[in-house]
Amino acid sequence: MSTETYLPFAFFEGKIIPTELAKVSIMTNALQYGNAVFGGIRGYQANNKKNYYIFRIEDHYRRLMSSLKILNQKIPYNLDFLVKTTVGLAEKNLPKSDFYIRPISYAANYEISPDLSKVNFDFAIYMIPLGEYLPVNKGLKLMISNWVRINDNMIPARGKVSGGYINSSLAKGDAARLGFDDALLIGNDGHLTEASSANFFMVRDGYLITSPKYADVLEGVTRRTILQLAHDLGIAAVERMIDRTEVYIADEAFLTGTGAQLAWIAEIDGRVIGNGKIGPISAKIQKLFFNIVRGNEKKYSSWLTPVKV
Ligand code: PMP
To answer: What's the pTM value of the predicted model, to 2 decimals?
Structure first.
């Protein structure tokens, strides 16, 4: 997927301006050192093709605030402002399809050292049209990367810190060159963590299993959503460490994320997962998830913020 199109307006340096004018200098500290945190939020078109909903926007911005706190940085905007600005920008951008919102808070100074005590973080938002980031109906072919997942005392994986994404880029780039859709990464302690930009779930003996928050995974908003849906559907779910070989013999497996949505896995390292088709538990959760994000499940409407276009 490459991003050749973008929606016309961005929020940059406190104002809404044309996206093509939202530019930073080559001297920007964040560009040198990855000193930035970001978010990824989806806007979904309702089935009537008229309404749009932003999914769990507050939760995404809470995580952005937590990521900033981990870096010991502050921005002059509160949650309410971030939500209102994003919704206002989406309304001005007049999306014509599902779209993706990328807020980013970055060390904007021309500071030459990687010293986080010397920089100020600015905040910007841009938006792009976005359909599937990974195929959701085809069955993913994954590999286990030999790149080790960053850990909490190196670059915290629980936050969405730009510099940490070198780890994702290496794993994803190598997987793509080898013909895989994505890669799963093992953590420093030898357990499975997550994919390059999505959380991992598997089903064994009727239990839905995902790595715990202390396993060097991003605290995914979709991950939390899926655990809630499993609970509501009466599917037993556990957060526990996962061994590499367990994933080979799982009955079902899938990735979750704002980009990935819920994408089921057909193969890992050449081992077919289950019977190579979407499993019953994955299918049940996937169906409910897509109904929710398009506004067809009243019970979950508090997760949706309407965009009036
Ligand atoms: N892990 C990583 C490394 C990611 O980049 C993402 C995408 N944000 C996820 C998991 C999924 O998180 P979320 O459901 O909040 O999008």
So the answer is: 0.97
> What gap in Å lies between CA 236 and CA 217, rounded to an integer?
21
CATH number of 3-129: 3.30.470.10
Residue 266, CA distances (Å) to 53, 147, 180, 203 in order:
30, 22, 11, 13
Ligand 1 close to Cβ of residue 134 (< 6 A): no
CATH of 140-293, one of 3.40.980.10, 3.90.580.10, 3.40.1710.10, 3.20.10.10: 3.20.10.10
pLDDT at 50 over 90: no
219 CA → ligand 1 middle, Å: 7
Atom of ligand 1 nearest to the CA of 199: 10
Other Cβ atoms closer than 10 A to 6: 18
- Measured from the Cα of 60, ligand 1's closest atom is 15
Strand-pair partners of 204 = 207
CB of 223 closer than 6 A to ligand 1?
yes
**pLDDT, position 182:** 98
